[in-house]
Every structure is written in structure tokens, then in C-alpha cells.
Amino acid sequence: MRNTLAISLVATIAVVGCSNLERSRSLANPATPAKTIALQVCSNCHGIDGNSLSPNFPNLAAQQKPYFMAQLKEFRGHNRLDPDGFEYMWGLSRSLTDSQIEGLADYYAAQTPKRPATTASQLTSEGREIFEKGVPEKKIPPCSTCHGDRGQGNEAFPRLAYQHADYVYKQLMVFQRTNERPEGAVMKTVAHELTEQNMRAVAAFVQEFPAP
User: Fold this and answer.
1) Which one of 19, 68, 84, 126 is at 20 to 30 Å from 3 when CA atoms are compared?
2) Could you report the per-residue pLDDT of 66-84, keeping only the tens digit for each?
3) CA dihedral over 21, 26, 32, 36, signed as positive or negative
4) Which residues neighbour 69 within 8 Å (Cβ) at sequence distance 6 or greater?
């Protein structure tokens, strides 16, 4: 009798714990709040406040809401084919509702991005030239045209300021050499003539985004 009561008590506690939506890790439950998903799931890769500690995962703090929502929906629809994207994000986004996606976008848009330490290297100087002036001889426009003069982004175009250089470089390679991001037609055209040095320089610059 005592053992039966103990088992029953444990089962009751488990049910109560699993039904606590404020602590839930369930991505299949449309009632799980977006902030809970951000804190309990997304934070493992992107940090509690959207500032990722790993260069493999993008910073999400202060990201443009329309861009953020569009990317999550691309992952959910299995339209983004970049390897890291489908490896990590296809499964995680599969059951997210439009409301949860919007809530996540609101959460991250409200976070404060953190600027890494600067090095004022030659690479960042080269990157500044491309970001602000483009590569005229190859008819490559300045990055600032779409991404803003402070790298803040512009709705459909993402915030780049303080983004991990490794991640930016990797995405530029995706745009240049593959069709793994089919929604990125503009970037595929822009990135087509960039050299590896150009891409590494721009990536270094936006990670630090040194003051003028």
C-alpha cells in the first residue's frame, strides 16, 4: 500500500512538472509561451539574451523582427538548406506556430547586443571599405545600402553589427557558392564577385563594428 502511494505521488509530481508551461521545453505545444521557448530551448545555442557565446551560432539580440520571422518560417518550411540550418533548426522549428515565432522575434528584438573587444586590425579596415563603399570596380554595392550605416538592418535585411565573424563568413560562402538559401537572391548576386579576402574582411568588420 505504501509503495503504491509513493508511486502515485511521484507520478502526480511528474505530471504537474511537465504541465508547467512556464518551464516547458515542449516545442510541440502551441500553448508554450515564446519567452519560455527562448529561455529553455533557444538559449542553449543563442544565449539567454540572444548573445551567443559560440561563433557557430548567430547572435539574435536586436535582430530585425521581419527578418527573424521570415528565417524561422523558412526553417519551419524546410526551405533553408544550409547545413547548420537544417541540422539544428528544421526539427526545432517544425511545430512552432506563427504566434510563437512572432513572440520569439519580439523577445530577441528587445535584447541588447554586446560588442566584442576590438582589435583595429588591417582586416577590419579592409572590411570597412567594402561595407561603406562596396567594390566599385566589380559593381558590388556597399553593404550599408541594405544593412544600414550602423549595421542595424532594415526589416527584410538582417542586423549585422556585432555578429560573429565566423558565422557571417560562412553565410557569405553559402550565398556565393550554393543555392542553400533560395530566398537570398539579392545576396547571391552581391556575393558572387567577392573574394575570400573580401568576405573575411567584411565579416571581421561587422563583428567589431568599430566607431567611425
Assistant:
1) 19
2) 999 999 999 999 999 999 8
3) positive
4) 101, 102, 105
C-alpha cell at 17: 512538472
Structural element, H or E, at residue 12: helix 2-18
C-alpha cell at 70: 521570415
CB 130 within 8 A of CB 200: no
Which pLDDT belongs to residue 7? 43
How far apart, in whole angstroms, are the C-alpha atoms of residue 34 and residue 65? 14
Nearest CA to 81 out of 183, 191, 181, 186 is that of 181
What is the C-alpha to C-alpha distance for residues 7 and 106, in angstroms, rounded to an integer? 42
Only one residue has cell 586590425, namely 121
129, 123 Cβ separation under 8 angstroms: no
- Give the residue among 64, 54, 175, 188 at the shortest CA–CA distance from 116: 54
The pLDDT score that the predictor gives to residue 39 is: 97
